[in-house]
Amino acid sequence: MAVxxxxxxxxxxxxxxxxxxxxxxxxxxxxxxxxxxxxxDRDSNPTLLERPSEIVLNTPAFATQLYDLAHAKNIDITWxxxxxxxxxxxxxxxxxxxxxxxxxxxxxxxxxxAEAQADKTGATVADYVQLEETYNECRASINAASVAxxxxxxYQWDNDNVPASxxxxxxxxxxxxxxxxxxxxxxxxxxxxLKLDVVPYYIKLRDAAIELAxxxxxxxxxxxxxxxLSGMGVGNVPxxxxxxxxxxxxxxxxxxxxxxxxDTTTQFKVLSHYIDPTDANKIQWEYxxxxxxxxxxxxxxxxxxxxNISVAAAGYYTVxxxxxxxxxxxxxxxxxxTKTFSSMGLIGVDGDWNTDIPMKAVNTKAANNHLWTxxxxxxSDTEAKFRAEGGWDNNWGKVAFPYGKAAQNGxxxxxxxxxxxxxxxxxxxxxxFIDAE
Length: 437
Hints:
The protein is mainly beta. The chain is built from 3 helices and 29 strands. Helix content is 13%, strand content 34%. β20 (344-347) and β21 form a beta hairpin. It is elongated and about 70 Å long.
């Protein structure tokens, strides 16, 4: 029997409608399963702990050996990763936290060296040092020299009383930076304490050398406009640290000053302490202070050269350079002394209060000189003063070392052993013992 076209079309439409029904039902079942799965995941999601779990610092194979810090390069340690959630998820280290190593002399970890330094009274005593290096993995190669320095900071040994061996106590601190909203920024956890025995050695502790700046020009030094460190005190004049200024202990950056006589013919620039990467003896001209009008200066931050600086009227001026903000100011000055001297000496070194160590005049091309220099080697801690023309009518001193502002008839300068290039300005009493070792 023949089938009409209308019946065929109807059957096709019914078949398509059934496919749509099955498809929609499948989608509904899939969605239901998805919602169920999400609900199950929500129930099993980890919860952030208020405080990460303790780190377990592993005992290294060399723990029972005597570790010679002077001949070793690193001390290798490892530890477990702290857990940050109740489900055992580890501390996320991709920007989420970091590890630091602390070294203690007694294992108590009560007061850090940084806290003791912040106490200007000196009453706070440190029992541990947090090393500067940071780590993003559960292992560290601790620089042996950093450990030796930490022990010196804690014990303050003299060169003659460093012990043959000493215990150190090491622990690891993890800091969570709080990338997750539920983890408070700065949340920390610490490891167990590991005891090691080491052979320490003497290190001369010092803050970073104060970053200077250098005056060059027609009336400074021998007027050769030298831009070399070897020309310091010859072809350029180092500026002085400012007494009482709080210099950055790590970089030595801050403000420095220089006072002298300037006349209207004086032409000069001031070099920042930017050393040529291809020549460690050269200071780069590209980072000098140049003229910004009469009696004003601006920093040439690697740009085009500028004009020489000059002043509108002859007189005494103080130049101050801020090595952080890169500013240079030039202001009229009223020096404590304006008398010129024919000679200057350093007296009292190694207990000799009869013989002066002669100092050389620095400004040999200027109308008059007020800046003096010499190079000395001090074999043991000593005291000294500056005095003019071999007599006591004009003498300067102050306890502060390695720099300060000495006063007429002031106290003896307490000099520690070492080799120094010494500068003294008799206009202001400013002095600076620059480490030359």
